[in-house]
Design a protein that fits this description.
alpha+beta; 115 residues; elongated
């Protein structure tokens, strides 16, 4: 359907558009953040995981943070490993990093990374 509509456009408009799409999953679950440190010697240290409190009617609005975060030890380890894999994939390997994620029924899903 998108292709048919695209082909029906004037040629000058077609030159300004693309049929490439990004499909994203809507992550459902509570919002968390983890602070992770990386040393010049290749050592990784997850410092803390925080549960992020969000607005009741607006989950984009962050209202504060809670420690302890309420995750089990196994979930904590899973999130720490996940955050370190994300940072390594981005080439962020020296400093302190803030990683936000939603903990879904399938595990953590990335929201943002702040070096």
């Amino acid at each position: 359907q998108a292709n048919a509509q695209f082909l029906s456009l004037d040629g000058s408009l077609q030159n300004q558009l693309t049929l490439e799409f990004i499909v994203e999953e809507s992550a459902v679950g509570p919002l968390y953040s983890i602070e992770v440190g990386a040393s010049a010697h290749g050592e990784w240290m997850p410092f803390a995981i925080l549960r992020r409190k969000t607005g009741l009617h607006n989950p984009i609005l962050e209202m504060g943070s809670v420690i302890p975060c309420g995750l089990s030890d196994a979930q904590y380890d899973e999130v720490a490993d996940y955050a370190i894999r994300v940072l390594k994939a981005l080439g962020l390997d020296l400093g302190i990093f803030h990683v936000e994620f939603i903990y879904t029924s399938d595990g953590p899903r990335l929201v943002e990374v702040n070096p």
